[in-house]
Specification:
- The chain is mostly helical.
- Among the domains are: 19-100, no CATH class; 117-175, no CATH class; 342-423, Serine Threonine Protein Phosphatase 5, Tetratricopeptide repeat (Alpha Horseshoe).
- Helix content is 74%, strand content 4%.
- A three-stranded antiparallel sheet has the order 2-1-3, covered by helices on one side.
- The protein is elongated.
- The termini are far apart.
- Residues 1-18 have low confidence and may be disordered.
């Protein structure tokens, strides 16, 4: 009786083994002909039997299951995620990139990631930020070492104002201690005089060799950690949770007390919350930490101007110019700052009557406004010299030349603007 039982069991094992091979062979055949529905059906039939298979058979099964689910890229995001899980099982079973199926898995996973990135970039081009964020997130989940994709997922989500999703991604980046430091490759466009950023060194160098670009430069980009913490805090503020915003900034500053970017980010958050005094304190601390940073001085000028502190903004812009005489935006913003004081003068001029006293006051105000225009001219002229294609600066200069009766300069600037507009 015992021998008969053993024989029966042997027959059962043989039947199961035959069934496994039959279903797997059917799945393999269906995949080769592109019939993924039949392939999935065959895989489903073999699924319950695969537990007793050897490692070699299991690796083949999960490889075919992944292919069936992936359906050559036409599957849903859910099925593609399941496909990747199957591919991961293959690599786990074989334990080596040189396994029989692991090489094919690596190639397929790379294809899937590139497919998601293509879709994400396409969505980004059409300003479909939600779809772009989903694509970048899927690409990251399939290749966790490429944390840049998670950063893109967070950035596109916040641009699309999906603060729930972006907060989740930013907090994940923070917990991963993501830095995002890389190289920035630039060169100056000969025709426009503008410095442009290139995707990589090869494209930049090729552009310089073509003769269309000059003055190639490269520099290491700053860490993204300050931006990430700032965005986490700003999202908390938009949700009305100021306490969590401050706690987020405080924790980051305690871990990185010498991080200038974090300090500036906290200042921005304090300003957003209306804490102007704390904002000023942090700005002062920033200039003490790095007093010779022209870009920092310029940014402090911008922030001060936005806060309504024109006197401080002027000091910062002047400092930026003294540190970097070629800082075009600092000259431009100085002009904007000067011209921003025109409004109260114009309002008073418009409020005056026709009495002799009013007429006298009107002439005084007109002279004051004229002096204001004249003081802005050098900054605008320098801006245009450094950035010849800045049409806004050119138009402002043209109007000022007209108002201050500098007709020769007005005509020359008008001709320049016409040329610029024709070029566009």
């Amino acid at each position: 009786m015992k021998k008969q039982i053993v024989v029966a069991l042997s027959l059962l094992v043989s039947t199961i083994s035959f069934s496994q091979k039959s279903e797997i062979k059917a799945a393999e055949k269906a995949i080769k002909t592109g019939n993924f529905a039949d392939a999935k059906s065959a895989i489903q039939s073999a699924e319950s039997l695969i537990g007793s298979a050897d490692a070699k058979m299991k690796a083949k099964f999960y490889y075919l299951k992944g292919q069936a689910l992936y359906a050559n890229g036409s599957a849903s995001n859910e099925d593609i995620s399941k496909a990747v899980e199957s591919f991961n099982m293959v690599q786990e079973i074989e334990g080596s990139a040189k396994g029989k199926y692991s090489g094919g898995v690596t190639e397929l996973k790379s294809k899937i990631i590139n497919n998601y990135l293509t879709k994400a970039n396409s969505a980004l081009g059409s300003k479909d930020y939600a779809r772009a964020s989903i694509g970048f997130d899927y690409a990251y989940r399939m290749s966790p070492k490429d944390t840049l994709y998670l950063y893109y997922a967070a950035s596109t989500a916040v641009t699309g104002q999906d603060y729930v999703t972006s907060l989740k991604f930013y907090e994940e980046l923070r917990d991963l201690d993501y830095q995002g430091v890389g190289m920035l490759y630039t060169a100056t466009n000969k025709e426009s005089g503008e410095e442009e950023v290139f995707d990589n060194q090869i494209i930049r160098d090729t552009s310089v060799k073509s003769g269309a670009y000059i003055a190639p430069k490269e520099k290491q980009t700053e860490s993204k950690s300050a931006e990430i913490v700032k965005n986490i805090a700003l999202i908390h503020i938009s949700n009305g949770d100021n306490e969590r915003a401050i706690a987020s900034m405080k924790a980051a500053r305690e871990q990185n007390p010498d991080d200038l970017g974090l300090l500036i980010s906290e200042a921005n958050v304090q300003l957003k919350m209306g804490n102007r005094e704390r904002f000023k304190e942090l700005m002062q601390e920033a200039t003490t930490m790095d007093p010779d940073n022209a870009e920092l001085q310029y940014n402090l000028g911008v922030i001060s101007a936005e806060a309504g502190d024109n006197d401080a903004a002027k000091v910062y812009y002047e400092k930026a110019i003294s540190l970097d005489p070629s800082y075009a935006d600092a000259y431009n913003n100085m002009a904007v700052l000067i011209l921003s004081t025109e409004q109260p003068i114009v309002e008073e001029m418009n409020s005056l009557g026709t009495s002799s006293a009013d007429n006298k006051r009107y002439d005084e105000l007109r002279a004051k406004r004229n002096d204001l225009y004249l003081s802005a001219i050098p900054f605008l002229e320098t801006t245009l010299k450094l950035k010849p294609k800045n049409i806004q600066a050119a138009q402002t200069l043209m109007n000022i030349y007209s108002t201050t009766s500098q007709m020769d300069k007005f005509k020359a600037m008008k001709a320049k603007i016409d040329e610029m507009e024709a070029g566009n």
